[in-house]
Amino acid sequence: MKTISLYVDKGTMLNKIAPESKIWYVIAAITIPALMGTRWAGIVLIAVSAALLLYGKVLKRTLPLLAVSGFVLLTVLIIQGMFWWGNETPLFALGPAVFYREGVNYALGILINIINILMSFCVLILTTKPSDMMENFVRRGFSPRFGYVFISVFQIIPQMTETMSTITDAQRSRGMETEGSLAVRIKAFIPLIAPVIMSSLINTKERALALEVRGFNSRKKKTFLNDEVKTAGDRYIQIALPVLIIAAAVWRVTQWLA
Amino acid sequence: MKKKLWSMSFNSATLVLIPAAIGINYLGKLFAGLLKLPLWLDSIGTCIAAVLAGPIVGAICGAANNIIYGLTMDPISTIYALTNIGIGIAVGILAHKGFMKNIKGAILTGLVVGVVAVIISTPLNIIFWGGTTGNIWGDALYAWCASQGMPVWISSGLDELVVDVPDKLAVVLIVFAIMKGLPKNLVSLFHSDEEIENLDHTDELK
After folding, report:
1. A203 contacts on B by Cβ (under 8 Å)
2. A3 domain-assigned
3. Which of B33, B47, B58, B85 could, after both became Cys, cross-link B92 (CB 3.0–4.6 A)?
4. Set of chain B residues whose Cβ sits within 8 Å of the Cβ of A118
5. Is B33 on the interface with A (CB under 8 A)?
6. CA distance to partner chain B, nearest, from residue A152 (Å)
7. What's the domain range around A147?
């Protein structure tokens, strides 16, 4: 079945450790540079994430994710480089466009921060199956009904995408234009999206009935399909990372006081 | 019988509405991309859920939507869950007050939701992106404002405003058109806490 998740099982250690450990890593990777307030922390963490991704054999798969934000980052660099408030010293010029040192510097800070966030998230999402993550949350006390809601999104979206291509074909065969001027394209939006929305809302009724028939609202304690996988490293990771975050905060406070 | 606005009780229909709404959000974004429209149109589902089942469900849809995007396609979008929560709540309240019953109310709702989105997104844009949005028209305006020496929050707010308000207006109008066409028995499915009138009096006899 098609899926929207980017997860791949490469059988490495990163696939085996608990999702919580990886979530702690994401939290640490975002908060530590923010707490320390230095760019070096961000650069070091980007390197750490890259090393982890390489070890997990998924470094190549981070590229499409980086590309999503890459274009926006490029515009940030251009706009801040040319128009940032503190701009004073020209750095270089491309024809009539002058880039300033201060703006480029400011944009680099944004770049490092965003890339760091993206890479650390990749460590989590490229190596963790969404349903495993949700199952672990439910084990820790998250509502199983909402757990179902999250997991079913991953099943519903591929289904709806299929319905969508059927409807697009059907409307085209009736002679609807989907290419051309903006007005034509706007007009095409409603006849394309409305049938999918209607059918998916009507499907919710059947889905709800199907769930209730299978005891979805039962108050009995739910059991799990998969056994919990625990590795020895998880405990250490889940202690070490919060300690590092606190250490970063303490370091910053001592910097303030000094 | 009017349903309670801040009800936290969800029936199964309301719960399965959430993934459907997230799917609709996704398709809106996909279609807008396919047709190369200059809008995002990625909150249709959140708004439908908020109209059908109230602000709490709208907010949950908004949050879950962005968390799932964050976990699959675009990690940065996780933080914009806050914006979508705001959108869900705003639409839910306005729909409850009866704004989504006619076209004038729908336009007003669209404008309010657009402004709510701008108010929540602008600080996030400034923190994470230095104030730009990645939309060409908005960023061109941002660059112009910055070159005129306007403060960052005005430039960034305007940048977001020119993109978000038309987008949310379009979204709410699409939702309005779709709600008009929804069968009544489907709509009533999501009003979980409406009192059911019982014609059978056996309960009282007990």
Report:
1. 20
2. no
3. B58
4. 75-76
5. no
6. 6
7. 135-213
Of B122, B55, B53, B63, nearest in space to B90 by CA: B55
Task: Look at chain A and report how many structural domains it folds into.
Answer: 2
pLDDT single digits (tens) B39-61: 889 999 999 999 999 999 999 99
**What predicted TM-score, i.e. pTM, was given to this entire model?**
0.89
Give A 163-202 residues with CB within 8 A of chain B.
164, 178, 182, 185-186, 188-190, 192-194, 196-198, 200-202
| Encoded tokens for A179 | 């290419």
Model pLDDT for residues B89-130, shown as the tens digit of each residue:
999 999 999 999 999 999 999 999 999 999 999 999 999 999
Task: Please give the structure tokens belonging to residue A127.
Answer: 């190596």
pLDDT digits (tens, 9 = 90+) for B168-204: 999 999 999 999 888 888 888 887 555 556 666 555 5
The conformation of residue B189, written as its DSSP 8-state character, comes to G
Q: Is position A48 within any domain?
A: yes
Residue located via tokens 């963790």: A128
Q: What is the pLDDT of residues A148-160, one digit of tens each?
A: 999 899 888 898 9
The CATH number given to whatever domain includes residue B36 is 1.10.1760
Q: Under an 8 A CB cutoff, do A188 and B35 touch? A: yes
In a domain, residue A5? The reply is: no
DSSP state of A3: -
